[in-house]
Amino acid sequence: MHMKRLGVSKHIPVKKKQSTYIVCPNPGPHAKKECIPLQIILRDILKYADTAKEAKKILSHKDVLINKKIVSDHKYPVGLMDIIEIPKTKEQFNVIAHKGKLTLVEIPAAKAKTKLVRIINKTTINGGAIQLNLHDGRNITILVADAKKPKEDKYKTGDTLIISIPDQKIEKIIEMKEGNIAMITKGKHAGIVGTVKKIMTYEGTETNKIMIETKNKEEIITLKDYAFVIGDKKSEIILKD
Q1: What is the DSSP string of 117-176?
Q2: CA angle, residues 48, 17, 34, in degrees to nearest 5
Q3: Are 51 and 45 contacting, i.e. CB atoms less than 8 angstroms apart?
Q4: Which residue ranges form the domains of the chain, and what is each CATH number?
Q5: Which long-range contacts (CB under 8 A, 24 or more apart) does 53-57 make?
Q6: Residue 71 φ then ψ, to 5°
Q7: For the whole model, what pTM was predicted?
């Protein structure tokens, strides 16, 4: 299945008029409008292949890892904060938002051992365990004695976790709170990074908003769901200039 280039989401960095169609991502961990098919990453972004056929050949040789797992599907949906590794070239990349698009940033091998995930919601499951549902489609189950006690349940929707991959061990919690650093991931301000100045909660509605102050002291208000906390005192990920 393919989709027309002219109708492709603007976050995918491809030329609109180069050809009529472009590969469509398969269903997976990221929504269709929030991902880049792996074939496009290899051919159009990294320039490892000149054609779709060459990109498929690279994948058939199991030369690409996403979040420490070999991926051979050229339509695999790669999304925000995913870690891409090319062992043969000894390169690693993190997917971030930058200037309204998803962008690859090269990272050192040490940074490729973990990834950031945002808690989009959570539920209590049988046995009193807490299930954290994360932005990249994965779930993490937390075993607690009593899920209703605040000291047991320290995870909140909107917080970010730093997890090891592929075993999903939680290494750090970055809270969604004032003073921490956040990246706007959707909307016209996607890619802007700044300090959380204020979280605005409106009673009886889920459309909570957040104010982010950039390094240039510009104050931007966006939906809380569009903000991804990436650090407390400093960013935990490498950013583009």
Answers
A1: EEEEEEEE-GGG-EEEEETTS-EEEE--S-TTSTTT----TT-EEEEETTT--EEEEE--
A2: 65
A3: no
A4: 2-79 (3.10.290.10), 113-174 (2.40.50.740), 181-231 (2.30.30.30)
A5: none
A6: -125, 130
A7: 0.89
DSSP annotation of 38 reads H
Total number of residues shown for the chain: 241
Mean pLDDT by 10 residues, the chain (241 residues): 52 56 86 91 94 95 97 96 97 95 96 97 84 96 75 87 97 97 94 96 75 96 96 95 79
**Tokens describing residue 96:** 């971030």
Residue 80, token pair as written in the block: 């925000």
3-state secondary structure of 107: coil
Q: Cβ contacts of residue 234 below 8 Å, gap of 6+?
A: 181
Q: Tell me how far the alpha carbon of residue 190 is from its chain's centroid.
A: 12
Nearest of 191, 174, 156, 189 to residue 234 by alpha carbon: 174
What are the backbone dihedrals phi and psi of residue 225, each rounded to the nearest 5 degrees, phi first?
-65, -15
Q: Which residue has the tokens 């797992």?
A: 69
H or E element at residue 164: strand 160-164
* Residue appearing with tokens 């200037």: 99
**Backbone Cα Rg of the chain:** 19
**Which residue type, as a one-letter code, is found at position 195?**
T
14 and 44 in contact (C-beta within 8 Å)?
A: yes
234 touches 181 (CB < 8 A): yes
φ and ψ of 235, to 5 deg: -65, 140
Pairing of strands 170-174, 114-124: unpaired
Residue 23: the pLDDT is: 85
**Alpha-carbon torsion (160, 165, 166, 167), positive or negative:** negative
Q: What is the enclosing helix (H) or strand (E) of 66? A: strand 65-66
